Amino acid sequence: MKHEEIARLIHKKLDREISPDEQRSLDKHLTDCPGCALLYEEMMGMDRSLKQLTEFYPRRNFNGLVLARLGFVRKYVWTRAAAVVTGAWLATLICIFHSPLPAQLLGRLATSVPALVRLYDKAAIVCASLTKVLAPFVRIPFDTAYPMIGIVLSILFIYFLGNTLQKEKKCNI
Amino acid sequence: MNNQDDTVDLIQQALTGEERACQSILNLYKGRIFSYVYRLVHNYHDAEDITFDTFIKCFRSLAMFDQSKPFTTWLFTIAHNLTVDYFRKHKTPPEYLVEMHPGGDDPVTEYERKRRAEIVDDALARLAPVDRELVILFHKEEHSYQEIAGIMNLPVTTIKTRLHRARKKLHDIVCRKRNKP
């Protein structure tokens, strides 16, 4: 078989169009002809290198830019605000219940502002009334800490609800 | 379930406005499209702009896509048309990226592989844009002649002849580069 014919078969192999008979003829020739075997190896090596060419990527925020253009806008401001408020509330609670100093400071601050004293009195009256109403159903005494825990839980609930609603945001493409 | 079925599912979800499906489509194809465009225009920012426009056009006309046909061919057709428009509009000097090849176990084999790949990549850059595009679409992206004919809007026979010629040219350049000290 002529070398030109072998070169044609090598291209056919690269084209993924070589028949089993042609493959046999090619293999037979390659074992006897070092020149064609070298060409075959080089062409196959080139094909392998082309398949393994490096894949490049655009900038990291590429997806965000495309999605923003399509109308998917995430409300990160709300997420951050909810996280800050929740964190602040938890930090306040820890300070009040686990450190005597802030409690004393807060106590002095509260008694120095008449409006705060009145508010505390009203909250105490509400708690006492609730304790009386809930007494037949709840055995543990109702404390002023409960409304605070309630508020914290409410904030957490709103925070997670906000996040969930945000994830389900859809857009008409 | 094969890749085509997965892609069809993702397309259907994207059509209902699911953000996650759009993210998945972007993650699956942005590297391939960006690499393809970058190797044609040789400018990072322009390649990014063309890739961006490709995906915007793809998502906006997703409802018109015939789901019985391969999604990649359709996506590459959009990228090809936008790249042709880019070449029509302006000519810019090439700009190269710092290449990052995936790591391997054997350092010597890895070095040899890297060297070969670099030589081929450099040789590829020396081909005419159309020839380069053909070689990338056929060898790297593994599209068939029929698919490439659809993407580039050229007859199959022309593509076959040009690809054979481009392959020979690429081989000559690679051999010359390898023999250089």
CATH architecture of the largest domain in chain B: Orthogonal Bundle
The total tally of domains of chain A equals 2
Q: Which fold name is given in CATH as the topology of the largest domain in chain B?
A: Rna Polymerase Sigma Factor, Chain: A
Largest interface: pair, residues per side: A-B, 32 and 52 residues
> Major beta sheet of chain B, specifics?
none
Describe the protein's architecture and organization.
- The complex is a heterodimer of chains A (173) and B (181).
- With 173 residues, chain A is mostly helical.
- Chain A folds into 2 domains: 49 residues, no CATH class; 96 residues, no CATH class.
- Helices cover 76% and strands 0% of the residues of chain A.
- The longest helix of chain A has 23 residues.
- Chain B is mostly helical and 181 residues long.
- Helix content of chain B is 75%, strand content 0%.
- About 7% of the residues of chain B have low confidence.
- Classes of the chains: A mainly alpha (173), B mainly alpha (181).
- Chains A and B meet through helix 3 and helix 4 of A and helix 2, helix 3, helix 5, helix 6 and helix 8 of B.
